[in-house]
Amino acid sequence: MGVLAEKLNLNYEEAERWIVNLIRTSKLDAKIDSESGTVIMEPTQPNVHEQLVNHTKALSGRTYKLVTQLLEHTQGQAAR
């Protein structure tokens, strides 16, 4: 924490508050060990359902882009 506070040009308490806000807003699984002055971050593995939903959303978006580009291309050729 001390090194981070120094790098951020903040005092120790301000750096600790900044890290707490960062953890909260980014929804990280992390905690601050005040005794040792360290931030402990646990690796998070999304569950299978979350992974499936995220991959499906990404696939849907890519499919939409591909179809849009294909339609634009075919309409451009039909206009010739």
Automatic annotation (TrEMBL):
Top-rank taxon, per record: Eukaryota
Cited PROSITE patterns: PCI (PS50250)
SUPFAM superfamilies the UniProt entry points to: Winged helix' DNA-binding domain
Protein name (database record): PCI domain-containing protein
InterPro entries attached to this UniProt entry: eIF3e, PCI_dom, WH_DNA-bd_sf
PCI domain location: 1-46
Signal peptide: none
